Amino acid sequence: MNSAEQLSQCLVLNTVSAARILLRRYDQRLKAHGVTVQQFALLSAIRFHPSEPVAAFAQKVALDRTSLTRSLDLLEKKGLVRRVAGSGNARLCALTEAGDQLLDRLHGEWLAAQNELISRVTAAEADTYLKVARALSEE
């Protein structure tokens, strides 16, 4: 096998390529609402884990702390999130009313994009993909 063939079979390069394409597709759907897929993921994490400290969200949405802080700053500036004091030095995030309403609307867009994507593969392929992606991303 030559280098070009090896590169075309590289799991990492294929994953990066697929991720970029999928992110562009999902971002395009969410663009009208003024958020990205990463911001949608962060808003969702805040909704479903309301008592988690900010530091825990970095792992949940696969962001480093600097990117997380930048994203939270932007969401706070948009009036979608507010940071509140937790116990000790911990900071917690909460959705504002506007953030909660936006997330309800975004859920429909996300669901439509998810259904469109899933329609391109069989249920077994989707299940295998998720298992492989989760296995490869374990630390």
Q: What distance lies between the first and last C-alpha atoms, to the nearest angstrom?
A: 30 Å
Low-confidence stretches: none
Shape: globular
Task: Calculate the mean pLDDT score and round it.
Answer: 88
Listing every helix as H and every strand as E from the N terminus to the C terminus, the arrangement reads: HHHHHEEHH
Strand order of the largest sheet: 1-2
Main sheet, how many strands, which sense, barrel?
Answer: 2 strands, antiparallel
Helix content: 55-70%
How would you classify the helix and strand content by structural class? mainly alpha
Total strands: the figure is: 2
Relative strand content: 5-15%
- The Rg value, from CA coordinates, equals 17 Å
Number of helices, where a helix is a run of at least 4 consecutive DSSP H or I residues: 7
Descriptive overview:
The chain has 139 residues and is mostly helical. The protein has seven helices and two strands, in the order αααααββαα. The protein has helices at 3-8, 11-30, 37-48, 54-60, 65-77, 97-118, 123-136; strands at 81-85, 91-95.
Write the layout of secondary structure elements.
Elements (H helix, E strand, L loop, with lengths): L2 H6 L2 H20 L6 H12 L5 H7 L4 H13 L3 E5 L5 E5 L1 H22 L4 H14 L3
Antiparallel strand pairs: 1-2
